[in-house]
Design a protein that fits this description.
The chain has 155 residues and is mainly alpha-helical. It has a domain of 106 residues. The protein has 4 helices and 4 strands, in the order E-E-H-H-H-E-E-H. Strand 3 and strand 4 form a beta hairpin. The longest helix has 35 residues. The two termini are 45 Å apart. The model has no long low-confidence stretch (mean pLDDT 88).
């Protein structure tokens, strides 16, 4: 009887198992020294979620802006901002697959500004910058690795 492989199992009878360590590109990032998130900054699935989240967050930001134009009493904006803040927190938590907003922002409303931008935008732009740097780095690394093999076999 030959080797037996059971689906979902790493055990094969009569075989010596070797282990291959793979770099899957997953990086861990500590956000503002408060909460760690992990993702591969070149993963197209993550990039799609990032793009979708950015669009949804931007639409909520616009909704608050439009609400402010329509209200007559400035106090009317608070419940609207609170409701939309909850939606924004859900979007960001879904992006990272874990609770990031509470440890990162605490009770601060995500429409709060810092450096001329809402705090949610500062987070998203920091992630976007990291993604762009990672994509450029991976492209350069790919070119070097391909050149190594092309040179080896063109001799």
């Amino acid at each position: 009887m030959g080797a037996v492989f059971r689906h979902g199992s790493n055990i094969q009878k009569g075989c010596i198992m070797k282990s291959l360590n793979l770099n899957l590109g997953v990086e861990e990032y500590l956000l503002a020294g408060k909460v760690a998130v992990a993702f591969n900054p070149t993963d197209m699935n993550f990039l799609e979620r990032l793009s979708r989240a950015f669009s949804e967050l931007d639409a909520l930001q616009e909704e608050v802006r439009q609400s402010r134009e329509k209200i007559t009493d400035d106090r009317e904006v608070f419940p609207i901002a609170r409701e939309l803040d909850g939606k924004m927190r859900g979007i960001l938590n879904d992006l990272f697959g874990k609770e990031v907003c509470e440890p990162l922002f605490g009770g601060m409303n995500l429409f709060s500004s810092s450096g001329g931008l809402p705090v949610w935008a500062n987070l998203m732009l920091a992630i976007t910058d990291e993604v762009q740097d990672a994509l450029q780095g991976e492209l350069a690394a790919r070119e070097q690795r391909i050149a190594k093999y092309v040179e080896k076999y063109q001799k």
